[in-house]
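Hi all, long-time lurker, first post. I run a small reading group and we've been trying to get comfortable going from sequence to structure in the token notation. Rather than ask abstract questions, I figured I'd post a concrete chain and ask someone more experienced to write out its structure so we can walk through it together at our next meeting. Sequence below, copied exactly:
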Amino acid sequence: MSSTPEPSAHRPLNGAAKLVMMTSAAATIIVFYIFISLTILGLGFWIGCELIAAIIGVRVGLTAYIGRFLERHFKLLSALVNQLWLREGTRYRLKLEPSEAPGIVAIMNRLAGQLNIQPPDTIYLEMTMGAWVELRGLRREIGKTHLGIGYDLLAGLTEQEIEAVLAHELVHAKLVKRAFSRWLKYGLHRAGRVNGQLSAISNAYRRAGQSFTIAEGILQIADRLTHWCAQLVAAYSRQDEFEADYGAAELCGSAPLSSALSKLNALEEKLSRLPWSERLAHIQSDEGLSQWLIKELALEPVAKPEGERLDLRNKYSTHPSLTDRLAALPKDGSTLHPSPPGLQLLANPEATARKLVGEIQRIQLESENKDLKALRKWKMTTRQSTQFRAVHVPGILVGLFSVFIALAYWAGDHPLVALVIAVSGLSLSICLYRILGALVRRPLPILDYETFIRTWPELPAKIDLEKTQQEIEATLKKKIAAVKSKKKRKEFFLHEAYTALGRGDYLTTHVAARQVRINNKTDHDACLALAIASAAYGQRDQCNQLLQSVYGHSAFRSPTVAWGAAWACILTGSWLPAEALLHRRLRKSPNDPALLSLIAFCQYQRGKPRSALLNIRQARTVQPATLEQTKLLIRVLLDQGDRNEAEQLLRELGEIVHTDQSLQFSWIRLLVLKRQFAEANEEIERLSAQSPPPHFFVGLGKIFENAREDAKAQEFYQRALLNGHYPEALIGLSRLAWRVRDKGLSRQYTLSAFDTTKTLAPKARSIFDLFQSALNLLMLLEERVADCKAWTARIPPGSKPGPLANRTLLIYATEEKIAADYLRTVMQAMEPARDLSTTTFSKPTLAPKDLQPAVPVYPGIQYIYI
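-- Answer (accepted) --
Happy to help. Here is the structure in token form:
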């Protein structure tokens, strides 16, 4: 693949050149502010004109037409205004007391004295590989200074190297123009947010096959300004980094700073394979987190992958490349001397680690609680007006009657009485309208969590499913053969459908509810039951249509309907709406263990472990814990690395742990977390003797891969393949091959995973579920390129494979032909026996400008665009 020459090296500039750069960056930010201000004023004026036109258009019936444009422009205006308001993100950090980090404080005091500045006011510790300084105030050397450093950085570097890193940050505190630098950073941040929002709005209309001319026009200018801002601010920031490096080298010598910088890439690669759960597990071990982390980060020579450019320069990067930074350091003849790990700068690394983890978990729970705002926002979208039905008549009549009475009193010179009657009557009318509209004639049973999980349906073969449905339908019709009344037949089938739901028999529910809908397509109760049954058997489109019908009647306001919709959403894996609806249903039964357990299950699936722990524990206190609740609690605990409580729960279960396959799996996870591989292998032998399904071997492969036992992980992925085609196993093998730099084997495994002609094993995820993961692996096998372009190519309707038909993909490539080759390779892998000599997709075309890459990227298919 051809590429343009690598950009020239970044170098420190003299004073005049840097002044020109600063002036250019400031001018560009000012131009952006002027442009966005004029845009907001112009949109406001245009919206005002449209409002006037809409009022005038009432007389000629143009209000609805103008209203569509008015709504579109108002949403654009509000989006732009919102993006200008910067909000501080969540920061997972711990404020250190001086007594907790005496070594760091001593180094900072010494360095600050050498620089003739005040030491940082606050030190923060993070579980990261970085260091930073946050500068408050308006002038150089004046104002509050906060210093942050990562626990991982302290574990991976020596004290001498940490001193050089701290010197770098303190030189920033001395030299950086605080107010100007912060103003540039905020300006760039706002420009990026505005540009991203404009791009998102424009893309939404493109994907819908529409155009939004005003948004596209604003985007073209905003995109150009944002790129200029990013490039100039990044260049200014790189000069600050060069100055800080030079100042640190003067204080501590070039050798320790060069050594620290050279280690960072290798350390980050190692840290990427240290999962959070294993960190937490080692806090509870005898060895402790600090000593384990120091050993894991002990560096070994890392070979540079052949032909891969790890140091490709990026003009939008705020830091110079490693090569440029090392080249700019002065040759002072300094050397490294033996030095202990940086964690020794903490008074008690283990106690500090436990305190940091506790603070991170507290902040994590707060962040998860903020997610409730998103749930409320989702629920607000379900509070729109409902369809008119007969049950709404009483509310409407009460409203009309109160209005007539109020008018009569108004005519009789009793305006105060008229006002009271009107307000009271209309309030009662609205309440009746909402309450009666949400009424459900038949209560929906709530399955306990144990039954819900145990009756989770397995998808049988289509022919078996149809045959079973026919048998159930024949049995039900035989029972009611003598009944001729349509009303009684309907009540019989509804009773059967809801009774079947109560025991988790989704197939009988599907058959019975479908019989009701033969004569009444809009029956509320039948639609709700059939939606749940359709979700159980993977009929997502039918489920969504039925839920829309139910929503039209009640807007999910009724607790019963909210529970039914949540039930269907859980079965389809729609975790956010499921959690939102379960919270609504929980209002009526705040301590229902089934609802609490299902909320915990949804939160676990959504990556909210702290909230899931709280809810599952609350459910277990309401009534005696069930086995399935205990299993869920153990899974969450293991994900959080709480091996002590998980082990206690598993031992309390007794011998069932060694016979129940899901519990065996959790027991193996625990043993691997404790690095007790001999005991884990014994349990694996017991599990293998029970002929577990292939997905268990895939899970075991992931456990050992996370534990960095790649040979064992490869063994289990191969065993999964022996039991049937399993895309997850092939992708796992591809990852392992990529890590040892065997790109040819990794490509072979990845392309094999795309094969849609192989039969999937039970519970296997199809390649369409893993499509993005497989694409990402293919891209990582390429070299990053600086001159890629974005292309779009469409798969025609009716093409194979079906899920990609009528879809458009975004591809990065230097040329149109290469973009087509990338797509052809994937299409051929999906159907190896198919002849692709003729074109099966549209000719790649250049994507819109806002989708074009601005930095060096990995070429290949990026994602499904539409």
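A couple of things your group might point at:
Strands lie at 93-96, 122-126, 131-135, 145-150, 789-794, 808-813, 845-846, 860-864.
The CA atoms of residues 16 and 199 lie 37 Å apart.
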